[in-house]
Every structure is written in structure tokens, then in C-alpha cells.
Amino acid sequence: MFENLITAALAGLGVAIGLMVFVWLISLFCRDASLVDRYWGLGFVVLAWFWWLTGARDELALIPVGLVTLWGLRLSLYLTWRNWGHGEDYRYREMRDKHQGHFWWVSLFTVFLLQGVIMWVVAMPLLVIGQVLPELSGPFVALFCLGGLFWLTGFVFESLGDWQLARFKADSDNQGRVMDRGLWRYTRHPNYFGDVCVWWGYWLMSLPAGGWWTAFGPALMTFAIIRFSGVSLLEKSLKDKKPEYVDYVRRTNALIPGPPRPRGS
């Protein structure tokens, strides 16, 4: 069984890299490396279905695979809609300006292939689910359901948070103001909190198949969101652009929702 998992994992790595090379080629034509963000969610959908189709094809596993599909499609469609007509994201523009004529091949390794490998690592619970998820009994039923509850909580926070922020930004009266309403009143990043819950939900659903060892996948996602590509990167920019954001940081939890503190505290 372990050898089969290794074979399936390596095949999945090939799928992830192949997908990212394809997106990279499109980005060269469009001169927009930020296309990688739009395909991020779809990449997990492709991996989930690939591992299910090449695995035991257990009907129960279709539940988490379907949840991955719903999550991934929503994320990719939302990012496509949000960024449509805005050109390349500033992060990639800065990289393009730095590397000039070398950016086309630098982006392959530092943007596309890197994210492909990270995607593959994060998706390890989906490997176990798609390949060997057994019939559930006893405490495994509770674990599977708990994972589904984590996923639902995360999906609601992520989707509702994105929708609330989009409505806030659509109102011209809010230009330059800090979003501190709805879910954003209780956490500065409800969408990132939702993403973390979603991935730990998949891990919980993988436990009946012995997926305990795949915890490094959602752990990597959590670390990246908090320290690398999510909270830290975004907040550095917001503090420079919006003076009110400093007080918002004092009042509001960074990730895990909690009661807001009084202004000026």
C-alpha cells in the first residue's frame, strides 16, 4: 500500500508541475504572471480528481473530492472576477521590473514551479483520501464528520468574507477606509482563517485512511498564510496605505475570530 501511495504521489507531482508549466506558457503570452493565483484553486481540483480516478474510486471519497471541487472552483472564479481588467498584480510587476528580460524564465522557477510543488505538498491529505479511504465505522465516522464541519466553517468564512469585502469596496464612500464590518469585525482575515479551516478539515477526513502523517500539508498552508504569502505580506502594505489600519490591528484578532477590543485599547 505504501509503495502505491508513493507512486501515486509522484504521479500527482508530475500533474501539478505539468499544470503549472501550462499556466506559465499562458502567462508568457498574456504578460501576466498573476494568472498563477487564478489557477491555484483549480490545481487542487485537478489533483483531487486525479488521485480519486487512479485510486480505489471509493464512493465515500467523492464527498471530500466534491468539496475540493466546490472550494477550488469558487476560489478561482472569485479571483478571476476580482482581478479582471486590473492587469498584473503588483508583486509580480515588481519581480518583472527587477529581473527585466530574464523574468520569463525566472518566473517559471520562482513563481510557477514553486507554487506547483507547494500545491502538491499541501494536497497530501487528498492523496490519501483519493487512494485508500475505507468504509467508516466507530470513531472514524465522528472524525470524518468533524472534518466536514471544519470544511463548512472554513468555506463559509472564506466565501462570506470575500463577498463582504467586495461589497465594501464597491461603495465609493468607503475608498481609503478600513473594512471592519461583518466577519471582518472579529478577525482581520476571515478568508485566510477559512482557508486554514478548510485544509485541516481535509486532513481530519483523511484520518480514517491513516492520513495522520499528512499533517505537514495543512501545516505548510497555515504557516504560509500567517508568515509568508498571506497575513504578513498583506498587512505590511495596508499599514503603509491606511493609517486607520494600525488601530484596527490593535482592536481585532489577526486570524482566529474573537470579540473586538474597544477603540484605542
Automatic annotation (TrEMBL):
Q: Which domain of life is it from?
A: Bacteria
Q: Which Pfam families match?
A: DUF1295 (PF06966)
Signal peptide region: none
> PROSITE patterns, per this entry?
S5A_REDUCTASE
Gene3D superfamilies in the cross-refs: 1.20.120.1630
Question: Sorted alphabetically, which keywords does the UniProt record give?
Answer: Membrane, Transmembrane, Transmembrane helix
Looking at the UniProt entry, the stretches that span the membrane are 6-26, 38-54, 60-81, 102-128, 140-160, 189-205, 211-234
What protein does this entry describe?
Steroid 5-alpha reductase family enzyme
What organism is this sequence from? Answer: Natronospira proteinivora
